[in-house]
């Protein structure tokens, strides 16, 4: 029982970390797009 609970906890932690990575990657892409727009506005 203890082993199964520990495996479940590790699995949930891994899923949480993977979801976090996807969120951070998406945030980075959004920030890059915003930076590109600001750069375009400054040039033009």
TrEMBL record:
Keywords linked to the UniProt accession: Cell membrane, Lipoprotein, Membrane, Palmitate, Signal
Top-level division of the source organism's lineage:
Bacteria
UniProt keyword Transit peptide present: no
Q: Name one Pfam family in it.
A: Entericidin
Q: Is-annotated flag, keyword Membrane?
A: yes
Q: Which residues form the signal peptide?
A: 1-19
Which biological process terms from the Gene Ontology are attached to this UniProt entry? response to toxic substance
List all membrane-crossing ranges: none
An example GO CC term for this entry is: membrane
Q: What name is this protein filed under? A: Entericidin
Which family does the record assign?
Belongs to the EcnA/EcnB lipoprotein family.
